[in-house]
Design brief:
binds NADPH dihydro-nicotinamide-adenine-dinucleotide phosphate, Rossmann fold, binds oxalic acid, alpha/beta
């Protein structure tokens, strides 16, 4: 019996070796080089080519190699099987570290000094007064991020689909309360999953409800944001800056106006990258669970989309 690693365009030797150590009696194979597709019982996938799971007739479960499952669920031929995803304290820590760095970058006005440097301008400025942070999505990552910033001295509000009670965080729920959740925010961080409900959710209406000169950070998925509305909000000064780690199309096209925009900071989807060494044990555990027919760790609600 075997596990197929279906993660195109990524070097998989390390993951293969570590999984092999954890499961010495199981064949760990890198798709598309499969010894016998009928032997594959478990697939570890990320951005799989649509249709590629269909030939695996004895597949029992699908393990997403990341936290967000949108690219897996987008496959119209996805078999009707349990899907799980990565939930990992190391991933959460990485996300907090990235966001802490970005918020401090803006607080210290490093974006402004970077533009001044390009023009040889020497003009001291005090730090920006960033007091209130809003976090959209209060799940594994958003909840931890909200708590982190509260612990760092910020006022924090958060927004989710269902009502939450997080100590010291002002929580809002449902589309009707999105505007309230962000109304007082100096910084808005998007940590929503991409689903049919969140696609293009953050458009003109959303950007017009923000405080003037707010800062927007997207570390979730590019397609949650209407890029034209974001650019328009930057142009009219409704937003002071945007930090974007994720894009509708990745890699971001060289023709995108975002690259050259002076108020946009771009990072290439690096805010929290799956750490092979810390996730191997949960993948191996899920393989054993799938074989025994027990519930997977970190299951995904395929109908809800996250
Ligand atoms: P979770 O599934 O744990 O949390 C998702 C949160 O979003 C929940 O609080 C959920 O509400 C809320 N939510 C979902 N749909 C809606 C909606 N329609 N309206 C309001 N709130 C909604 O996800 P994670 O925290 O683990 O991850 C979030 C996303 O971050 C991932 O889906 C992925 O796309 C992205 N990500 C990006 C990375 C990067 O490197 N850039 C790395 C890792 C993740 P409720 O609690 O009520 O269900
Ligand atoms: C993830 C990601 O969802 O890397 O894990 O974006």
């Amino acid at each position: 019996m075997s596990i197929a690693l279906i993660i195109p365009d990524r070097k998989l030797d390390d993951l293969q070796q570590r999984l092999q150590q954890a499961l010495p009696d199981t064949r760990i194979e890198i798709w598309p080089e499969l010894h016998d597709p009928a032997e594959v019982e478990f697939a570890v996938v990320w951005k799989q080519p649509h249709g590629c799971l269909n030939g695996l007739i004895n597949l029992k479960a699908i393990q997403c190699f990341g936290a967000g499952v949108d690219s897996i669920l987008a496959d119209p031929t996805l078999p009707n099987l349990p899907v799980s995803r990565i939930v990992d304290p190391a991933l959460t820590e990485a996300m907090i570290g990235y966001l802490d760095g970005v918020v401090n970058y803006y607080r210290l006005q490093l974006d402004v000094f970077s533009r001044q440097q390009q023009q040889s301008v020497w003009r001291p400025k005090s730090p920006r007064k960033l007091n209130h942070i809003a976090v959209l999505g209060l799940g594994e990552l958003g909840g931890a991020v909200a708590n982190h910033f509260y612990g760092s001295g910020y006022q924090v509000s958060g927004w989710a689909r269902s009502g939450k009670s997080l100590k010291n965080i002002q929580c809002f729920a449902g589309e009707g309360q999105l505007a309230q959740a962000v109304a007082a925010a100096d910084v808005v961080i998007c940590l929503l999953p991409l689903t049919p409900t969140t696609e293009n959710l953050l458009g003109e209406n959303f950007f017009s409800t923000l405080k003037p000169a707010a800062i927007f950070i997207n570390v979730a998925r590019g397609a949650i944001v209407d890029e034209q509305a974001l650019l328009a909000a930057l142009e009219r000064g409704a937003l002071a800056a945007a930090c974007l780690d994720v894009f509708r199309q990745e890699p971001l096209s060289s023709a995108s106006p975002l690259w050259q925009h002076p108020a946009v900071l771009i990072t290439p989807h690096v805010s929290a990258v799956t750490n092979v060494s810390t996730v191997v044990s949960q993948i191996a555990d899920n393989y054993r669970r799938a074989q025994q027919g027990s519930a997977l760790l970190n299951p995904v609600d395929v109908v809800r989309g996250y």
